[in-house]
């Protein structure tokens, strides 16, 4: 029994309790997942605190992910969650897609309110997700199109501000930040590659190793266009070619392989190697 009390470490516990308290204030939970690594950006403990709230899953950074894989992920996630949408938060128009989806999920309660003789109340929603999935970008977009400023309604927890997106929809103006589980090295590696956790958590060497093995297996032509590397051999070989191509030399005139690593990781993260998803469903 004692074990159950400690189902996650203390620092996670505190962050999750905070999110849990916010969830109590909303009708719909909007969970953001990075489309390049949906599985790793799910916080496994979230289920326990969301309980029976309606959940909208948003796959973000759609523009950076492999469209074929995104389709597969949507199909898979459909069986577990009420509703799923994909968004490229760099596009205007993404806020309308979100608004429609939230209202579709939340409007059930209007029937109940009407049945009780109440005036239908606006749907309240909050955004949550692990770091760097686009929470702030999405909130900023919603705030920009807001109809009538940010509201501070009496009856809600003090300090919670609501963006009045429309007459029907209030969005909490601060996101729930879900802690990462660093203990799973596979997941941590993928999250570091997409920039969701601090890069210095794992050495570049490990990230590059992982990335190159993955590309070799799933996207063997990924380095062709940017670096003119038509076959991904071993790491040494790839890094030398990148250093050559980009004229990265160290003080002694040798290929600067460390800088080649940094450059490769950055170009991957920025989507310059193409639309690549690090988690293919079957694997
Ligand atoms: N390419 C692309 N970049 C995005 C997208 N959404 C967010 N970003 C970028 O990802 C980074 C993290 O976004 P942010 O909203 O701060 O994430 P948060 O940590 O969850 O609040 C920023 O540099 C954003 O510009 C997207 O859909 N596509
Ligand atoms: Mg943020």
Overview in brief:
This protein is an alpha/beta fold. It contains twelve helices and eight strands.
DSSP summary: helix tally:
12
- Ligands in the structure? guanosine-5'-diphosphate, magnesium ion
At the fold tier of CATH, the topology name of the largest domain is Rossmann fold
Backbone shape: elongated
Strand content: 5-15%
> In sequence order, what are the helices and strands, one letter per element?
HHEHEHEHHEHEEEEHHHHH
Uncertain stretches of 5 or more adjacent residues: 1-6, 147-157
Structural category is alpha/beta
Determine the mean pLDDT: 87
Radius of gyration: 22 Å
Number of domains: 2
Question: What's the CATH architecture name of the largest domain?
Answer: 3-Layer(aba) Sandwich
- What is the top-level CATH class of the largest domain? Alpha Beta
Amino-to-carboxy terminus distance: 34 Å
Count the E strands: 8
CATH superfamily annotation of the largest domain: P-loop containing nucleotide triphosphate hydrolases
Query: Which percent range fits the helix content?
Result: 40-55%
Largest β-sheet summary: 8 strands, mixed
């Amino acid at each position: 029994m004692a074990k159950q009390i400690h189902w996650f470490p203390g620092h996670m516990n505190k962050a999750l309790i905070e999110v849990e308290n916010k969830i109590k204030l909303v009708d719909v939970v909007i969970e953001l997942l990075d489309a390049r690594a949906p599985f790793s950006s799910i916080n496994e403990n979230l289920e326990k605190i969301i309980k029976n709230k309606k959940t909208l899953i948003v796959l973000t950074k759609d523009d950076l992910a492999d469209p074929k894989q995104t389709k597969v992920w949507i199909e898979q996630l459909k069986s577990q969650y009420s509703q799923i949408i994909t968004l490229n938060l760099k596009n205007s128009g993404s806020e309308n897609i979100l608004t429609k989806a939230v209202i579709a999920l939340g409007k059930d309660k209007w029937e109940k309110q009407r049945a009780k003789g109440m005036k239908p109340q606006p749907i309240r929603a909050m955004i949550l997700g692990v770091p760097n999935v686009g929470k702030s970008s999405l909130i900023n977009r919603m705030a920009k199109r807001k109809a009538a400023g940010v509201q501070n309604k009496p009856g809600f927890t003090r300090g919670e501000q609501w963006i009045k997106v429309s007459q029907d929809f209030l969005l909490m103006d601060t996101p729930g930040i879900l802690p990462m589980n660093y203990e799973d090295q596979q997941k941590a590696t993928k999250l570091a590659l997409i920039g969701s956790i601090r890069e210095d958590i794992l050495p570049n060497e490990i990230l590059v190793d992982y990335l190159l093995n993955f590309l070799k297996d799933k996207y063997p032509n990924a380095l062709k266009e940017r670096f003119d590397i038509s076959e991904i051999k071993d790491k040494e070989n790839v890094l030398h070619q990148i250093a050559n191509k980009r004229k990265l030399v160290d003080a002694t005139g040798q290929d600067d392989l460390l800088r080649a690593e940094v450059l490769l990781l950055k170009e991957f993260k920025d989507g310059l190697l193409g639309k690549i998803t690090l988690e293919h469903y079957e694997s």
